């Protein structure tokens, strides 16, 4: 089951400044304050995370979102 989660505006603004991985999407790494990392996460149009699993994300706990090469 694919889930799409809308990102808060502060992350959208940051991702809009980064290059796309492909047309209309970016592959990112999401780093959390507790040290957890979600790798190879697809973001569509800099504003929606695409997840293959139903994962709850607490956006207040994200320390950084960066491109995942």
Give an overview of the whole structure.
With 69 residues, this protein is mainly β. The protein has one domain. Helix content is 12%, strand content 43%. The chain has 1 helix and 5 strands, in the order βαββββ. A 5-stranded antiparallel beta sheet has the order 1-4-3-2-5, with helices on one face. β3 and β4 form a beta hairpin. The radius of gyration is 11 Å and the shape is globular. It starts with a strand and ends with a strand.
Please sum up the structure shown.
It is built from one helix and five strands; from the N terminus they run E-H-E-E-E-E.
Please give the order of strands in the largest beta sheet: 1-4-3-2-5
Integer count of domains: 1
Computed structural class:
mainly beta
N-to-C order of helices and strands = EHEEEE
Low-confidence stretches: none
Overall spatial form: globular
**Please, what is the average pLDDT?**
94
How many angstroms does the end-to-end distance come to? 25 Å
Strand content: 35-45%
Helix content class: 10-25%
Oligomer: single chain
Radius of gyration: 11 Å
The biggest beta sheet, please? 5 strands, antiparallel
Number of strands: 5
Count of alpha/pi helices? 1
Task: Give the helix/strand layout.
Layout: E1 3-6, H1 9-16, E2 25-32, E3 37-44, E4 48-51, E5 62-67
Antiparallel strand pairs: 1-4, 2-3, 2-5, 3-4
């Amino acid at each position: 089951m694919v889930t799409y989660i809308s990102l808060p505006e502060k992350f959208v603004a940051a991702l809009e400044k980064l290059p796309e991985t492909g047309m209309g999407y970016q592959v990112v790494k999401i780093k959390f304050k507790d040290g957890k990392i979600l790798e190879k996460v697809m973001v569509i149009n800099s504003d929606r995370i695409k997840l293959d699993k139903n994962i709850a994300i607490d956006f207040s706990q994200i320390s950084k979102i960066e491109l995942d090469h």
